[in-house]
Specification:
Helix content is about 20%, strand content about 35%. The protein is built from 5 helices and 22 strands. Strands 1, 2, 15, 16, 17, 18, 19, 20, 21 and 22 form a 10-stranded mixed β-sheet that branches. Strands 3-10-13-12-11-14 form a 6-stranded antiparallel beta barrel. The protein has a 4-stranded antiparallel β-sheet with strand order 7-6-4-9, with no helix packed on it. Strand 16 and strand 17 form a beta hairpin. The longest helix has 29 residues. The two termini are about 35 Å apart.
């Protein structure tokens, strides 16, 4: 134990002597704190100041001006945008199915063609339904003729009122049978429910189709809806009608404008994201459902002062910077918000253009007199290593 303690003392002594002899300004630092080492040469500034006095005639560095370099504060905006990946879907998409069972006789359109709402795109065999419709038509004509004769006889008081009522009931039933036969005949035609582009056909003429068999898909791509997800932290900034800009991987160099048309009412608990839908006009038909899109949103953002990373220091109270004002150094507390390669965003009482000391900061104290050095570009020069002195804080 004694050997180890002795070895440690020897190492510390050697390190102290090396610092005292080799580090510029070390002797002056010792003199500032009233430490005198007999075998070390006395610093010139200490001899001039006289015994028991520090250079400048005051305590520490308060009596002399410290050379410093400053850089201006700039204002940076963060959280002012969001980029997300989304998938496009048609504004309206309908799967066309067979309205009833039967054999597919013909298809009247081809994939890729545009149809309007109500256009017939195919027909099922309809011989039986046509016969039933014709029979119903004949029954209606006969019932109408009978009713007309009964009305003439009733006007002449030849038949009873009950006979006239029976004829009216028969005519009404015949009308209903005709309507039923007409609907059955119409259901042999496959009709497009919306206007749009016809997709690939799932069946061919000659196939027997059961009711509700899928035939094709018709999509209205006059506008494209893009579903994307935003992180939870940005959920409050998203609102209906907010403009968006999108670009498609399949359409390099093209951008499209639209707006948010739908927002989900809850955050997904697994991904911590919010589903949002944007609608993009597609008059030229370049965008298709299923494409992947890059979606860009612009937010107002938050503005913060930005300082040079070299200006940040730490104390027991937190991070701070030295502000140059009226030839003096003023301490300003600066909470770090975000670190970037070209600056540090802080939450502090600083304005754009404020001069922040970036060199000579280790020698400063509150209200210390400083001498501003400026380079050719007006942004500051360099400080000689001999000017560095003791500090109460540690540079970050």
């Amino acid at each position: 134990m004694i050997r180890q303690a002795f070895a440690s003392l020897v190492i510390l002594a050697v390190a102290f002597l090396a610092w005292a002899f080799l580090v510029p300004g070390a002797q002056q630092t010792l003199a500032d704190y009233g430490i005198s080492v007999p075998f070390l040469p006395v610093a010139a500034e200490t001899q001039q100041a006289g015994p028991g006095r520090r250079p400048g005639g005051g305590g520490g560095f308060a009596g002399r001006s410290i050379n410093v370099v400053t850089t201006p504060v700039t204002i940076a905006t963060v959280n002012d945008g969001l980029n997300a990946i989304g998938e496009g879907v048609a504004a309206r998409s309908v799967s066309v199915t067979a309205p009833s069972g039967g054999t597919l006789v013909e298809l009247l359109v081809r994939p890729g063609e545009r149809v309007e709402a109500g256009d017939v795109i195919g027909r099922l065999d309809s011989d039986t339904e046509q016969i039933a419709y014709d029979q119903a038509m004949l029954a209606v004509e006969d019932a109408r003729a009978t009713l007309q004769r009964q009305q003439e006889l009733a006007n002449s008081n030849i038949v009873a009122t009950s006979a006239l009522n029976t004829a009216k009931l028969a005519a009404d039933n015949a009308e209903l049978e005709l309507r039923s036969a007409e609907i059955a005949l119409q259901r042999r035609s496959i009709v497009s429910p919306i206007a749009g582009i016809v997709g690939l056909m799932q069946v061919s003429p000659g196939n027997y189709l059961a009711a509700q068999t899928a035939i094709t898909t018709i999509e209205d791509t006059s506008s494209i809806d893009i579903d994307f997800w935003v992180p939870e932290r940005s959920a409050a900034a998203v609102s209906l009608g907010m403009p968006v800009t999108v670009s498609a991987v399949a359409l390099p160099g093209r951008t499209f404008e639209g707006e948010i048309t739908a927002i989900d009412n809850r955050i997904d608990p697994e991904s911590r994201t919010l589903q949002v839908r944007a609608s993009i006009p597609n008059e030229d038909g370049l965008m298709r459902a299923g494409m992947s899109f890059s979606v860009a949103l612009d937010f107002p953002g938050e503005e913060y002062p930005t300082v040079n990373p070299l200006a940040i220091l730490w104390s027991a109270d937190g991070s701070f910077v030295w502000k140059y004002e009226d030839g003096k150094a003023t301490k300003v507390m600066a909470e770090i918000v975000q670190r970037n390669s070209d600056g540090v965003l802080v939450r502090a009482d600083l304005e754009a253009g404020d001069a922040i000391i970036t060199e000579g900061i280790l020698q400063l104290s509150e209200g210390a007199q400083v001498n501003l050095l400026e380079g050719p570009d007006g942004s500051g020069g360099t400080i000689d290593a001999a000017d560095a002195g003791p500090a109460d804080e540690t540079e970050l």
